[in-house]
Amino acid sequence: MSKLFATALTLAILASTPALASENEVGEKLFLQCKTCHTLKAGQPNGVGPNLHGVIGAKAGSHAGFKYSPQLKASGLVWNDATLDSWIANPRLKVKGTRMVFIGIPDAAKRKALIAYLKHATK
Ligand code: HEC
Predict the structure, then answer these.
(1) Is it the case that residue 15 has pLDDT exceeding 90?
(2) Which residue has the higher pLDDT, 78 or 9?
(3) Separation of alpha carbons 90 and 62, rounded Å
(4) In angstroms, what is the span from residue 6 Cα to ligand 1's centroid?
């Protein structure tokens, strides 16, 4: 590796790290409004809403022991960037009859930060 390349690489890492940290911080703050109903880590109990551990890539309504609405269970959704984005934007528009009583986050950049946070916080 040339010295110039190494320097450029270091600078790129230095430049990208704070950006990642701040998107994650934004996401974590946004999750405060979900926290009243949802836990994130493996083995934590369901609350008003289901525990979200492993939710990325999971079929909607599949977390063990949670009593979902028949509508969410029957939605056929699989949680990924796109489905989470429209769900968080307006859960009741996405799945008519859902039991998730949440108004939604209209700001796309905020939803993106929240989904980025969810991706690692639910692992
Ligand atoms: C007032 C309580 C409440 C709040 C606040 C809330 N949720 Fe929910 N959430 C629920 C309930 C209840 C369900 C199950 C919905 C159903 O069965 O129709 C749910 C379901 C979900 C699911 C689907 C889980 C699965 O296993 O299929 C995701 C993802 C989710 N919520 C994310 C969020 C996020 C992100 C926020 C914050 C922006 C949030 N929720 C805020 C109560 C809540």
Answers:
(1) no
(2) 78
(3) 20
(4) 45
